[in-house]
UniProtKB/TrEMBL annotation, chains B, E:
Membrane topology category: Multi-pass membrane protein
Entry's family note: Belongs to the binding-protein-dependent transport system permease family.
Protein name as it appears in the record: Phosphonate ABC transporter, permease protein PhnE
Keywords for the protein's UniProt record, in alphabetical order: Cell membrane, Membrane, Transmembrane, Transmembrane helix, Transport
Start and end residues of each ABC transmembrane type-1 domain: 76-259
Organism: Oxalobacter formigenes OXCC13
SUPFAM superfamilies in the record: MetI-like (SSF161098)
GO MF term set: ABC-type phosphonate transporter activity
Alphabetical list of Pfam families matching this protein: BPD_transp_1
From TrEMBL, chains C, D:
Cellular component annotations (GO), alphabetically ordered: membrane
InterPro entries per UniProt: AAA+_ATPase, ABC_transporter-like_ATP-bd, ABC_transporter-like_CS, ABC_transpr_PhnC, MetN_ABC_transporter-like, P-loop_NTPase
This protein's record includes keyword Transport: yes
Protein name: Phosphonate ABC transporter, ATP-binding protein
Keyword entries, A-Z: ATP-binding, Cell membrane, Hydrolase, Membrane, Nucleotide-binding, Translocase, Transport
E.C. code: 3.6.3.28
Length: 263, 267, 263, 263, 267
């Protein structure tokens, strides 16, 4: 693929409808265009698989991945992370294990024999991290509890709230937003454990881009301080990350007795 | 010449009809071409450029990797049960609905419009939403899957049944009416024997569709082979993906052959 | 007795039947004569109310008052109709088609199950009457044209009607079979006091069997009387009284329009 | 000349035509007689090779060697066929159906566009010949039975064939029209030296128009000669020679099987 | 009695046929009931328990919230263009495929099986995977969307076309053959006029399906109204969801009415 494309294709993930996302990220687009001297095209897609494949085949230049998706994609393609959202000075975030208040679950150990809801199989914070938290207490899916994949973070919270699953795991920031919005009632759902910090969603780029361009992109992201640009990311800025930072995610694979190179 | 004069009104009428058809065709062609252009289908360069990627991606799917086959047995059985159950319910509900929604059997034009509208409405609710709604209502497992498949299928199955009924040969129907059959008897003995094989075609197609629709069901927590498929896709095991696709194809072909055998036997 | 009071029928703008009033008496064997397109089929279809009337009224003895649904069904059950185009279900067997004539005698629910042995035997016997017992279990689309027509006749016999309406019942039969079938219909009618209205093209058969002959031309009744009243001249007039046939006599040769013979 | 050499036809286990050898000479008007189911339609369909033969061979002068595709098409184009069941496309107009007879003269591509004015006029003229000019633009399913049959005849006239095969072409026509239509076919054949094979049910018409009469019974040729050779006795034998009709004569009354009249 | 003796073989044959049909029906019923049981459809308690949730969930969808309507205009136009383009391609490709895959027009049974197999294969590839493959090939946007819709549609459209062709009245086809038409002419002038209206029905149904096929569009970043729908669903704006559903239904009904008007005019 072209190492120095005249238009940079940048992919975003939706947490709102597409038109809104593009509108909200207009500032980012303008900022990057000015900084890099190139045209920037924003793309909104709902599916990691198509993002990974597009990147591998040079149809995308920059993309914003989940940590586990990144690790998976990295095995098969030539991409590198360079920046992650910085919140409260950190480029990490946490996942939570939640339980229905009437299920009688108060600590992780109580989950034994219960139904547990996860989001997507390839999700970090709604699958891999909570599952590892359970594994640390010697609870394994299929053996000690029943797992259900419900597709998304919000669906996890909803299934726990209406009692179809007694417990579930999802990203802490998303859980907090759901509570704030009033979709999840604190009297029905409670947090029973919070994970240790994991590296945030990385911004990644194709490794076969021109090295000068790569450097320019890297600095452009790290130097963002315009609140208008940062607002859609709910971030104070972007911090540098490297591939090594994601080894913790890779390690989870071994903890769960999953070979991540085969995963 | 007087002969020509006698024929000319007919020729003129035919020319007119042909011109009208031509205008319609041209308008259609322009609309379609416009849409294709809008979608970038005339961008030959992009299309040809894409070809190597297509080949390499498909190449990655070979050879199919059947190593995990043992873990697919239960999901396959689940999917089979869900798709058969969902389709059966849809077919049973669709038969009376189709009669009410077919122009030639509906008791009143108003009834016809109401039921056509109902079917249109059912079809416009995506399976995903059906799935989410039913998972919310009855919890995880095969049950919400069956319900979602059934409800979503009705919209299509009943529409197709109704269309078959509308295309029926009116002659034997008339004979049934003329021999004093009640409306229900006319439908059952004059129309159904004529549309039976088309209805079976539709039902089998829909079963097949529902078997494959388990992808969606997998996404909302109803399990099945589709969930395995998405799982393998998510973790980029493309050789496994192709293996599962082959399994699905084999299952569908098998049941297809079985049902066409069944139809031949009973007819 | 069937009384027609000023009935007329239109298809779109074509007047297929101009207003006509007449009575069809019980146990009368009436023959309809008329050229192609004269309105014979249309006339017959009025007698069991299968055609919507443009004007007029039909009275049948035994059916007083309005034609509500149930009355119509009983009238039609008691009025067997033999169709010009057979109107059979092609993919069913001859016997299944014949037994359709019995449906009107049963409740809807009963007809979901096979009919009684007695009725099935009746059906077979009707097929035997028309010389088709050996084809009873053949699909109708495997029968010859004349055989199909005879299945249509057997269906009406199975119906055990009080009136028989027959639309060219012997059109596709050889003269011997035609005579036999007509004889069969005639004998049944006479023995059981069934009245019949039969459209025919064979003037000799009409004269042989008819108690009364009705002549139609271009949608109008142009003759109504006994067979011996129908003179040669009148027969000729009956078939001459059409607008289109003036062309026939001229010449058998096609005009010499130059037409390419090979592409 | 069409030469049949030992041809026979089977449908499943039914032998519809036993081995037969005969010649159809040029410009001969041959009439086929036979009872219903005797094999007349089957015989006719062999002459333009529309039926797969069980055995035997067919030679047509002008077509030497094997019946490969193109030769068959040309043979059929030159052999017009009038069908017993009309075989029209019901949802197309009479004229469209007639013009189907012209398709064989053109390349596939040419027939995607309307035919030339000359050919359309030819089609209209053929319709006029059979007295249906005013119905030229009516859909065929709006025509009466006899009118449909005449459209089928017009289609063959439009084909300008060298041989005409007609399967009961006047079955649904009144005697006057029947005579006229047959006269038309006969005159055309005589004037243009066309040979014709026509199956009929009317012995009088057969004797009036036929140069030669072939009698079929139960799939065998039982008579082959000139009209004046066909005696009354032979006609009777022709229609008597069937297995099934022994039942007819007995009695017109249906057996007294008890059958419930109301459900 | 000799009469009974004469009839009894026929009665026996019919009883046999009926018994055979009965056995088939019973087997089918047992299979279906088994599947339903497996899927928990007889769990009345769970079903009745779920009912209130269903009602409350549907209740949350009312009243529909059309406030955002301005932001739906462009996606609607996009969806319209993409669905028309994809369907048109599918229909054009399907016509020859259908002829090859219909028992009565296929030049050879082998060709028939190969093409039926090809169509089955095309249908068993989920839209999701089609989408991914085409994104990898030609990048994001409307183009991969149209391609994915077209390819996925072919499997179904050609199958249905082929079935219509198989159910055609053989009589006029025979007449065309008998008047010396070549095979292609027989197909175009003997068969197509008979199946045209059914083919139009299928094409319109498939267009409607493609209009609603939001998954692919969302995945490939081509946007469209379906993507808005999923977006609103994800952020749990159920009132917006119902509003978009209504808009989709209205659009589909409109184009449906328009096309049936068109068909009446040209016929
Ligand atoms: N497609 C078919 N399948 C099986 N049997 C058939 C088929 N077509 C005709 N037959 C049988 O072959 C025999 C001869 O049929 P054919 O149509 O040639 O008779 P026909 O002389 O034309 O009779 P008709 O005057 O009644 O039209 C009949 O017994 C008929 O039942
Ligand atoms: N469904 C219809 N729509 C329009 N016109 C029709 C329809 N049916 C019949 N007609 C026309 O009405 C007239 C009378 O038709 P009808 O079928 O009663 O004639 P018929 O006497 O039975 O003729 P045939 O002996 O040819 O069967 C004919 O001119 C015919 O074209
Ligand atoms: Mg008639
Ligand atoms: Mg015949």
């Amino acid at each position: 693929a072209n190492p120095d494309p005249s238009t940079l294709k940048v992919a975003l993930l939706p947490d709102e409808n597409a038109a809104t996302i593009i509108k909200k990220n207009k500032a980012l687009q303008d900022y990057l265009e000015k900084k890099l001297g190139k045209k920037v095209q924003l793309i909104v897609t709902t599916d990691y698989s198509s993002m990974i494949e597009a990147m591998r085949h040079g149809r995308l230049d920059l993309a914003y991945f989940g940590p586990l998706s990144y690790v998976l994609a990295r095995q098969k393609s030539d991409i590198e992370p360079f920046a992650a959202v910085k919140q409260k000075g950190k480029t990490t975030y946490q996942a939570v294990l939640i339980a229905n208040t009437s299920s009688g679950i108060n600590k992780i150990g109580d989950i034994a024999g219960k139904n547990v809801a996860f989001g997507d199989k390839a999700s970090t914070s709604s699958h891999l991290i909570p599952k590892s938290m359970l594994a640390e207490k010697n609870l394994y899916a299929g053996k000690n509890y029943k797992e259900h994949f419900v597709g998304a973070h919000d669906a996890v919270a909803m299934s726990v709230q209406n009692g179809h699953a007694q417990a579930g795991g999802l990203s802490k920031p998303i859980y907090e937003t759901l509570v704030q919005r009033g979709m999840i009632k604190p009297q029905k759902v409670k947090v029973i454990a919070t994970s240790k910090p994991f590296p945030q969603y990385p911004w990644t780029m194709r490794s076969d881009l021109n090295p000068q361009l790569k450097q320019k992109i890297r600095t452009a992201f790290l130097e963002i301080n315009d609140p208008a640009v940062l607002k859609p990311f709910k971030a104070e800025g972007f911090g540098a990350v490297t591939d090594k930072d994601y080894n913790v995610v890779r390690n989870l694979g071994s903890l769960l007795k999953l070979d991540l190179s085969k995963f | 010449m007087s002969l020509s004069a006698e024929f000319s009104p007919f020729l003129r009428a035919r020319r007119l009809a042909w011109n009208k058809a031509l205008v319609t065709i041209v308008i259609l062609a322009v609309v379609v071409a416009g849409c294709c252009y809008y979608a970038g289908l005339f961008d030959v360069e992009r299309l040809t450029e894409g070809f190597p990627s297509l080949v390499s991606l498909i190449g990655e799917m070979f050879p199919p990797d059947f190593e995990q086959w043992k873990s697919w047995v239960k999901p396959l059985v689940d999917t089979l049960a869900m798709s058969v159950g969902g389709t059966a319910i849809a077919v049973i509900v669709s038969i009376p609905l189709a009669v009410l929604a077919a122009r030639n059997t509906s008791p009143h034009p108003l009834v016809f419009y109401v039921f056509r509208g109902l079917l249109n409405g059912l079809r416009s609710i995506p399976e995903l939403i059906m799935g989410i709604v039913f998972v919310a209502a009855v919890g995880f497992g095969a049950l919400p899957g069956v319900l979602a498949l059934a409800f979503h299928s009705i919209g299509m199955v009943a529409k197709f049944f109704a269309e078959s009924i509308e295309h029926v040969d009116p002659a034997p129907v008339e004979a049934a009416r003329a021999s004093g059959c009640s409306s229900l008897q006319v439908i059952v003995h004059g129309i159904f024997p004529q549309v039976f094989s088309q209805m079976a075609d539709t039902a089998i197609y829909r079963w097949e569709y529902n078997f494959r629709a388990s992808t969606v069901m997998g996404m909302v927590g109803a399990g099945g082979i589709g969930f395995e498929l998405i799982g393998s896709l998510r973790i980029m095991q493309y050789q496994e993906v192709s293996a599962i696709l082959i399994v699905i194809l084999a299952m569908v072909t098998l049941v297809d052959a079985f049902s066409s055998y069944l139809r031949k036997k009973t007819q | 007795m069937i009384q027609l009071e000023n009935i007329s029928v239109k298809y779109g703008k074509t007047v297929a039947l101009h207003p006509v009033s007449l009575d069809i008496k019980d146990s009368q064997f009436t023959v309809l004569l008329g050229s192609s397109g004269a309105g014979k089929s249309t006339f017959l279809r009025c007698l069991n109310l299968m055609n919507p009337l443009e004007s007029g009224n039909i009275r049948v003895s035994g059916f007083e008052g309005s034609w509500e649904k149930r009355a119509l069904q009983i009238l039609r059950r008691e009025t067997g109709m033999i169709f010009q185009q057979h109107q059979l279900i092609e993919r069913q067997t001859a016997l299944q088609n014949v037994l359709m004539g019995r449906l009107g005698y049963h409740s809807f629910f009963r007809t979901l199950f096979p009919l009684s042995k007695a009725e099935q035997e009746l059906g077979l016997q009707c097929l035997k009457r028309v010389g088709l017992l050996d084809k009873a279990l053949c699909r109708v689309d495997e029968l010859s044209g004349g055989q199909q027509q005879r299945v249509g006749i057997a269906r009406v016999l199975a119906q055990k009607p009080k009136t028989i309406l027959a639309d060219e019942p012997v059109a596709s039969l050889d003269p011997a079979t035609a005579d036999k079938v007509l004889n069969l219909i005639h004998t049944i009618c006479k023995e059981d006091g069934i009245s019949a209205v039969v459209s025919l093209h064979q003037v000799d058969l009409a004269k042989k069997y008819g108690d009364r002959i009705i002549g139609l031309a271009a949608g109008r009744v142009v003759f109504d009387g006994q067979p011996d009243e129908l003179s040669e001249r009148q027969v000729e007039a009956l078939y001459q009284n059409r607008l289109v046939d003036s062309e026939f006599a001229r010449s058998g040769q096609l005009m010499n329009i130059p037409v390419p013979f090979v592409s």
